[in-house]
């Protein structure tokens, strides 16, 4: 027998066969585009460290949602930048809050677009933490009430799914109970289950003005050194009624995505975050990377690790490339 008997290259030479043995697919129906909605007047306000992503007025957000849908992206996730912040984050659950108003406007204009709302208090509290602060620390159980109220107000305004990103203990259960009580038993929860205390959120915090005014988020977000703990977080969220569990960020945590998929078989979302986007954009602008090839490779890798869906600032652009 000649050597080598098995030549892996035989599967690679023809583009046809290469396509047939491809294990992972990337298509726009798995991508979710984040949109920042702001009460500030004016249409679009650029975000410095996120080229191509703007803070949008409600009419501009409706227009952007239409462009995202036209590109073939199946869903958007909304983040609000409110007019005012206070210690209770009360703009987060105000009936006429910016996300609530945007939900109504976007669903009215684009009823087939799947609209997810990010549920958190950090954009709405004057100190920038994800919950209510008492005696210098985030009080878990008081925060739960405010977070559940926020989720209900989003569902009332037409959210197709709610995505709590606060990392309080028990929030999935508390949101599920309240949603069911308020007649929203059909609204899914996409839980940010394994959300790490990551340096890669920097550009987002500038965009949303949600950098903590004191301390950091390590008292509630996960330690980047841990992955057993991610499995425990996910198991708890699933037991409390999470429909989809999320790992965030994505590329530095591909091992966590894989572990969670294997351990639970549950639908997994991955969040390719602002800092991951900024790195690709910066290198592309300097001419140091082929933006399209590098981005599609990154997104394919996130799918290969086990993510069923990907939240990415590249969603609209990637859909056009695909
Ligand atoms: C709110 C929230 C954050 C992100 C999504 N939801 C910021 C944070 O936790 O500091 C980050 C998203 C990104 O970096 O793209 N809790």
Give an account of the 3D structure.
- It is a single chain.
- Strands 1, 2, 3, 4, 5, 8, 9, 10, 11 and 12 form a 10-stranded mixed sheet that branches. Strands 6-7 form a two-stranded antiparallel ribbon.
- It has 322 residues and is of the alpha/beta class.
- Helices cover 38% and strands 18% of the residues.
- The protein is built from 11 helices and 12 strands.
- It has a single domain (24-321), classed as Aldolase class I (TIM Barrel, Alpha-Beta Barrel).
- It binds ligand PBG.
- Ligand PBG binds at residues 118, 120, 122, 130, 165, 201, 204-205, 210, 273-274.
At the first level of CATH, the class is Alpha Beta
What do we call the CATH homologous superfamily? Aldolase class I
Our Rg estimate from Cα atoms comes to 20 Å
CATH architecture: Alpha-Beta Barrel
Low-pLDDT runs: none
What structural class do helix, strand and pairing data support?
alpha/beta
Number of helices: 11
Q: Kindly identify the CATH topology.
A: TIM Barrel
Helix content: 25-40%
Number of domains: 1
- Amino-to-carboxy terminus distance: 43 Å
Q: Give the CA-based shape.
A: globular
Bound molecules: ligand PBG
What is the total tally of β strands?
Answer: 12
Mean pLDDT: 96
Q: What is the H/E order?
A: HEEEHEHEEEHEHEHHEHEHHEH
Biggest sheet overview: 10 strands, mixed
What proportion of the residues form beta strands (DSSP E)? 15-25%
């Amino acid at each position: 027998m000649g050597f080598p008997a098995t030549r892996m290259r035989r599967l690679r030479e023809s583009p046809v066969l290469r396509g047939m043995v491809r294990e992972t697919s990337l298509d726009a129906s798995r991508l979710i585009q984040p949109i920042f909605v702001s009460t500030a007047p004016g249409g679009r306000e650029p975000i410095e460290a996120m080229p191509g992503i703007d803070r949008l007025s409600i009419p501009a957000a409706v227009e952007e949602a239409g462009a995202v849908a036209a590109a073939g992206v199946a869903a958007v996730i909304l983040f609000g930048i409110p007019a005012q912040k206070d210690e209770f984050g009360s703009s987060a659950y105000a009936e006429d809050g910016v996300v609530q108003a945007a939900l109504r406007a976007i669903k009215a204009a684009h009823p087939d677009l799947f609209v997810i709302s990010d549920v958190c208090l950090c954009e709405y509290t004057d100190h920038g933490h994800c919950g209510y602060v008492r005696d210098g620390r985030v009080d878990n159980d008081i925060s739960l009430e405010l977070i559940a109220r926020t989720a209900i107000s989003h569902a009332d305004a037409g959210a197709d799914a709610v995505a709590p990103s606060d990392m309080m203990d028990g929030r999935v259960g508390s949101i599920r109970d309240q949603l069911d009580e308020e007649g929203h038993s059909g609204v899914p929860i996409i839980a940010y289950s394994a959300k790490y205390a990551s340096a890669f959120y920097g550009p987002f915090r500038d965009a949303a003005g949600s950098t903590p005014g004191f301390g950091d988020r390590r008292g509630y977000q996960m330690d980047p050194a841990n992955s057993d703990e991610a499995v425990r977080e996910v198991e708890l969220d699933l037991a409390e009624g999470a429909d989809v569990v999320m790992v965030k960020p994505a590329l530095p945590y591909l091992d966590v995505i894989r572990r969670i998929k294997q351990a639970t078989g549950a639908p997994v979302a991955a969040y390719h975050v602002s800092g991951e986007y900024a790195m690709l954009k910066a290198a592309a602008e300097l001419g140091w990377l082929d933006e399209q090839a590098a981005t599609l490779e990154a997104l394919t890798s996130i799918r290969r690790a086990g993510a069923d869906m990907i939240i990415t600032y590249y969603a609209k652009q990637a859909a056009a490339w695909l």
